[in-house]
Amino acid sequence: MTDHRPCVQLNTGVQMPLLGLGTYRLQGREEIYQTVDAALTAGYRAFDTAAVYRNEADIGQALCTLLPKHGLSRADVFITTKLSPKDQGWKAKDGCLRSLEQLGLDYIDLFLIHWPGTQGLDVKDKQNPENRAQSWATLEEFHAEGKFRAIGVSNYTVKHMEELLKSCTVIPAVLQVEFHPRLVQRELRELCEKSGVCFQAYSSLGTGILLSDPLVLEIAERYGKTPAQVLLRWAVQQNIPVLPKSCQPNRLQENGCLFDFELSDGDMAMLSALDCREKFCWDPSLVL
Ligand SMILES: NC(=O)c1ccc[n+]([C@@H]2O[C@H](COP(=O)([O-])OP(=O)(O)OC[C@H]3O[C@@H](n4cnc5c(N)ncnc54)[C@H](OP(=O)(O)O)[C@@H]3O)[C@@H](O)[C@H]2O)c1
């Protein structure tokens, strides 16, 4: 088995694998079982889900069956899930308990607030900051009880992060945001570095679109690697954890083979120079 398990240390002391499996749009008990099985075989030890993905129960069930089959225990895997935007504010406690129940776990390794806004509220509604403060206080309680080993946020902008860092008791362990060569998020990364927050990438392949970028293709050919490997290597070489999603065993294997080659400084810089602030996912900048 290839060793895919280099980790980053979170500010709680917890180790988080640099490579995790993204599970957005992974649906159906059989497909989830097959994908988790193939991912464990390929060396993945981290899994990223969310209440809104509606697959927590099937992922929990698959892991429960598959961990013993792979000679692994709960402690060998790192499970991330996220609070639904509809559960922000006073509903947060129920949302947290539901995720634990759906996953069938006593504890979650990393629990994130998925989105700075609240579903059903206008992005400019003043209730948005109040709700996320209340959600954060709830996450801090679950963290204190040992039910969440680390807590963090997702899709927060610099403004949302500064507000949280000013008011929190527990400093977020992770900020998970969209990150790839066309969106290098300099300001957010600097803020995270300064504050001891681990910056984590999602949509590293640009949801698949960046796999046909001419520069990515050219670099891939020169290294004898695939475009996906170049994009993922570009992130992990900066010590940024990635969560590529695939339901195909050969791609899971391919996306996991990132630690046996290195991109030159020049190629890293050329990829970073593709930055044009292009987003393939949602844009949180308007959320008050
Ligand atoms: N916090 C958030 O708000 C947020 C938002 C978006 C994503 N995420 C997380 O990040 C994960 C990854 O992001 P993403 O799903 O948006 O996109 P992604 O990982 O950038 O791209 C996934 C797409 O690329 C394809 N693909 C994967 N590996 C490939 C390969 N080696 N060659 C060719 N095609 C390949 C997949 O298809 P196949 O499955 O058919 O292989 C899928 O269509 C999500 O699943 C989720 O866990 C979080």
UniProtKB/TrEMBL annotation:
Keywords: Oxidoreductase. The keyword Oxidoreductase applies. Pfam families: Aldo_ket_red. GO terms for molecular function: oxidoreductase activity. Transmembrane segments: none annotated. InterPro entries: AKR (IPR020471), Aldo/ket_reductase_CS (IPR018170), NAD(P)_OxRdtase_dom_sf (IPR036812), NADP_OxRdtase_dom (IPR023210). Residues 19-274 form the NADP-dependent oxidoreductase domain. CDD domains: AKR_DrGR-like. Substrate binds at H114. PANTHER family: 2,5-DIKETO-D-GLUCONIC ACID REDUCTASE, GLYOXAL REDUCTASE-LIKE. This is NADP-dependent oxidoreductase domain-containing protein. It comes from Ameiurus melas (Black bullhead).
